[in-house]
Amino acid sequence: MDRTIRPAARIGGVVRLPGDKSISHRYGMLAAIADGPSEITNYSTGADCASTLACMRALGVEIEHEGSTVRVAGVGRDGLKAPAARLDCGNSGSTIRMLSGILAGQPFISEIAGDESIARRPMKRVITPLELMGAKIEARDGEFAPLRIHGGKLHGIDYKPPVASAQVKTCTLFAGLFAEGFTSVTESVQTRNHSELALRRFGATVETSGLVTRLEGGQRLTGQNLPVPSDLSSAAFFIAAALLLPGSELCIEDVGLNPTRAELLTVLQDMGAKIQVTDVRAADGETIGTLVIEGPASAGQPVIQGGTIEGATTAGVIDEVPMLAVLGAYSRDGLEIRDAGELRVKETDRIATVAENLRRMGADVVAFPDGLRISGGGRLRGAELDSFGDHRIAMAFAIAALRAKGESVLHNAEAASVSFPEFYDKLDGLL
Ligand code: S3P
What we know:
The protein is an alpha/beta fold. It has 14 helices and 25 strands. The chain has helices spanning about 20-30, 45-60, 95-105, 115-120, 125-130, 165-175, 195-200, 230-245, 265-270, 310-315, 320-330, 350-360, 390-400, 425-430; strands at about 5, 10-15, 35-40, 60-65, 70-75, 85-90, 110-115, 135-140, 145-150, 155, 160, 180, 180-185, 205-210, 210-215, 225, 250-255, 275-285, 285-295, 305-310, 335, 365-370, 370-375, 385, 410. The strands form 7 sheets. The protein has a 4-stranded mixed beta sheet with strand order 2-17-19-18. It has a 4-stranded mixed beta sheet with strand order 4-5-3-16, covered by helices on one side. A 4-stranded mixed beta sheet has the order 6-7-9-8. A hairpin with a 2-residue loop joins strand 14 (about 205-210) and strand 15. The longest helix is centred in the middle third of the chain and has 13 residues, at about 230-245. The structure holds shikimate-3-phosphate (S3P). The site of shikimate-3-phosphate has 10 residues, from helix 6.
C-alpha cells in the first residue's frame, strides 16, 4: 500500500495507545503454560503478537481473542501438544526466539519458521544456549530458520550471552522453567526485564542480582488476569511527531515506563526535548505513567540538541533508533549513533533502510558498520520513501514526512501493522 503524506502544522490532544508488543508476547506464552485460565487485556493488536497466539493454539492451547482481550485456557507445564504442522511466527523475531525456549523443553519435535525476514535473522544466539541445556536443534545452514527443535530433558546452565538481547535471555529462562536445576543468565548490559517481571507475576520465583537472573526449573505457573501497559516504542513515533511540529502539545496516557525500556525519554530530555512524565505508578508488576510532550515554539528552533548515543544507551533505545535518526536531521548539532550493529539484523538492516530514506529526503548521512551519523540543522524534503517491509521504518518515515517540504509517498506503508495496525488512524486523528 502506498500512502501519501503531506506536511502537517501541529499535533495535539490526548491519546492512549495499544498494548506493548514485548509484554504481550510474554503474557501470551506464559498464560499458555500456566495452570488455569488467564485474561489479558490491552493485548497488542499487532500481527506479531497474533502470531504468538496462533503458535500457542497450534500447540493445543484454547485461546479466545476479541479485540485486545485475550482469554487463554492454560494447559499447565506438561500440557502442550505436538503441533500438526510447522509453527508460523510470521515476521516476529520475538515469537521464534522466545518460543524456542519453551519448545526445547517439550517431549516432542516441533518446527518453527516465519517470513523471508525471519529466514535471514540470526538464530545461533538461541540455538547455542538451548543445545547447552540438552536440546537438539536443526537449522538451515546451522543458524537460520526453519528450526527443527528436538525437545526433551533439559538441564540448567549458567549462560553469558555474547550479544545483549532480551530475546536470548527470555529464551534461556523459559527453557530453564523446564530444566532440571537452576538456570542463570548473566548479561553484559541490562536489557528489558519484562520476562523476569512476567514470570514473577505468573507466580514463579526469579532472582535478580545486578546483571544476573536466575530461576529454578520445575516451577509451575498460575493463570492471571493482567492488563498490558501501552507500548512506549509505539509512543515514540507520536513523541517524535510532537517534537517535530512547532506548537504541538500531546498527552499520551498510561504508557509503559519500565525503567529498562524508558531510556528514550532520558536521551531526549538530555537533548533538550520538553517531555514531562507524570502520574507514574505500578501496574501489575510493570510501571505506567503519562507523558506530556511540547513541540518547539517556532519552526526556527532546533527539535533537539543532538549529540552521540553509544554503549549501553544504544542498547536501551535500540528499537527507537529509526525515529531518533529522523530527529537527528532536525537537531542543532547532528546526531551520531554507535554500537548499534544489532540494527543490521532486525526486521530489515535498519542502518541501511534508515540511511536510504533519509538520503532520499536530502539529509546528509554517513552509515557505519555499527551506526549512523546524521548532520543536523536540516530541512528534509518530501520524497518517495519505502518501509522495505519493516514496521518501524514505515512509522518513522511517516512521521519524518510530516515536517518535510512537500509531499511524500511511503511505499509498503502497511508494514506498520506488524506492531501497530491503528497507527495511521491514530495519527490522522491527532493532526
Ligand atoms: C525484544 C528485544 C529486542 C527488541 C525487540 C523486542 C523483546 O530484541 O529489539 O523488538 O521483546 O525482548 P533483541 O533481544 O534481539 O535485542
